[in-house]
Amino acid sequence: MTETKESAWSAGLQLLGRLESAGHTAFLVGGCVRDRLLGRPLRDVDIATSARPEQVMELFASAIPTGLKHGTVTVREGGRLFEVTTYRREGKYTDSRRPDDVWFVGSIEEDLARRDFTINAIAFGSDGRLVDPFGGADDLRRGVIRTVGDPSERFGEDALRLLRGVRFAAEFGFDFAPDTWDGLLAQRAKLRHIAMERVGAELDKMAAGHDPERAFRLLAESGLLRYAREPLPACATPAEPQADSGERSVRGLADPDLRWAALLLRWGADEAEAEELFRTLRLGVRRGARVAAVVGLDRMLAADGGELPDLRARWISAVLRFGRAAAEDWLALAAVTAGRQLPPDVAGLARSWLDGMAAASVAELAVRGDEIVRATGRKPGPWVAATLRQLLSDVALGTLPNERPALLVAAETMACDGDGSFYSKE
Ligand code: ATP
Ligand code: MG
Asked: What H or E segment, with its residue span, contains residue 300?
């Protein structure tokens, strides 16, 4: 870990050397400098340079023109990719998202001035010196999120910065400078200019990040998400931040989807709202279904205020409804946010009840529909699926062995029950 971190950084410094020997100036810049100063693992190492894109292309055989319009060339070095971008400024933003045009400028200082926050506007030179015209290093030390220049103007130019600011505050445990927070509030309605997939990507990073609770508390405090282009379910846009429930942080969950599930449950969401949130945020149909299933399963367990006459039967029917995978997800969740809906010892019981289920889906039954049709001599119809579901329920509860002869006998008894109300039941 430390070694790769070190070598990405030093490989970046070597690229600076190559650019400088060719007569250009160049700096490591942006997130990598910030993370380096914070002592955090580096992700991508970005370079800003006086060299024009075509000059960068000439210098590096491996260069790929990935964003020529914006002055960006991607260089492969030692198996890593580096974005090398010519110093630039950005023109007017008429759509609160993208500059109408960009142009190249002569100095790193001018380039830094277009960047969003002071902590992201620090450059690191090959001589080890920082170029830090906006006091970014001080803000890093003090833990402050501050825009470069007038907050309201900067948020207004590009509304994605509203979300980036919240994400960085939560990620690093920083506070907003008062005027930056005021600027964010003043411009929050501009969030409507941001495509929902970008909103989703930012929120997903917050959920997967260092302090999801703090991220969503800041979002609630700012009311920001009420201004999204498409309405989000009410649970995700509360009028007031939720009081600290004293529950353990979702951080204890490594899987971001389980973090989402835990957050949604804490917000009181149901299955439909979970699904709707994932759909609106374009976070993927599969992920949405997975999270909604965990939420639905939990809600089903908690129905009747958790006072269950037969908890085991309730658990088993929830597993049958939502599937084994959702049950495993729920157990993983229960291990971390224990005691949310059910007493902690119930999770242990649920584990053994799940392991004891001889079948959790029709596919796991030791008999198939066509075999039942043949054994009963009845015409195929919807009754077959209904019979399989009933067999599954009995097998899952352990009242019927998962063995073909026993299942066929049971199926015939069910068929003898006539074709009336029984089959129309779930
Ligand atoms: P991370 O990669 O951890 O999300 P980052 O700061 O590296 O954080 P990137 O999106 O990789 O973010 O951008 C790299 C740099 O480009 C930033 O550090 C910042 O200087 C600048 N930047 C990125 N997005 C914006 C923006 N919307 N407005 C102004 N500057 C930006
Ligand atoms: Mg980055």
From this structure: helix 285-302
